[in-house]
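#dry-run=false #mode=assembly
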Amino acid sequence: MIEFLALSPVFDTGFKLYRMIEVIKEIEKIRHLVEKKRAEGAKIGLVPTMGAIHEGHVSLIKLACEMTDYVVVSVFVNPTQFGPGEDFKKYPRNPEKDMRTIDSAGAHCIFSPEISEMYPGEYSTYITVEELTKGLCGRSRPEHFRGVTTVVTKLFNIVDPHIAVFGQKDAQQLAVIRKMVDDLNMTVKIVTGSIVRAQDGLALSSRNMYLSGEERKQATVLYRSLCMASEMAASGVTEPEEILGKVREVITGQDAAKIDYIEIVDKDRMTPVTKISDSSLLAVAVWFGKTRLIDNIILNGKNG
Ligand code: AMP
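#status=ok
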C-alpha cells in the first residue's frame, strides 16, 4: 500500500507542477517497485536513516541522487540497535516533516516499515562483525552494532541497491558496515558522506534536540577540541597521548561534559595507533547531561 503522497512543488510555471514521493511500508511492495526500476535500467541508491531528518541526512540523500537514478530513503527506528535503558521510546519521530524534507532533497521513495514487518514474531537471526565492534561505542553499547548490521543487511536484501550512503559522523558504524560488506561478499558499494555541522561546529544529530540550552552551548567544545587536535597533528605532533591529553583537558573544562571515550584509532581497524598518520581517526563520545554525543575527525588526512 502506498500510504500517503506528499505534494511538493518542483517548479512553478503558472500552473503548479507537483512531484510525489511514495511512502511504502511493506517489504514486498518496495521490492517489487525497486525491481521494476532496476529492470528499466535505473541505478538504485539507498540511504538508511532512523528519521528525525536533518541537513546531515539531506546531504547523504543529495549525494545518492547525484550517483544514482532512483533513491530509496529508509526511515526506521530500529529497536535492535538500542540497549536496555537507551532512548528507543523517546527517539524523535516526525514522519510528516521527514517526508517533506526527504521529498525536497530529491529522493524518489521512502521505505518506512513497522517493527512487525522487519522483525516478525519468531525473528531470530543476527549478523555480527566481531573485532571492529569491541571498542569505542561497542564498549558502552554492547548490542548496538549487532542491531545495526542486522538491519542494514535486511535493508540491503530488501532494496538490493547498487550503492548505499552512510555518514562519516558514525565512523565506527561506517567501518563496521564496510567490513561486513567485504567479509560477506555483498555487491553494494558503500559511499561516505562528510559530517554536516551547525555554524558553531556541533555535528548535526537527531539527539541534539535532547540538549538543554546550556548543554547545547557546552557541546560546541567537541568540534573545538577536534580542530585543536587536527592542528597539533598538522604541526607535526605524532604522539597520540600528547594529543589525547590536550583534548581531554579541553573537554573536561566544560562542567556538563562527562567523557565516555576519547581515542585515536586506525580509521578502518578501529584499534589504537601508536603514531599519528593520515589514517588516524580521533573519535570522541561525551555525555552532556543525559545526552551522549559522538564526533570524530581524521587527523592529517581527508575528512569526508
Ligand atoms: P541516523 O538517522 O542517525 O541513524 O543516521 C542516518 C545516517 O545519517 C547515518 O549514515 C549517519 O552517519 C548519517 N548522519 C548522521 N548525522 C550526520 C551528519 N551530521 N552529517 C552527515 N551525515 C550524518
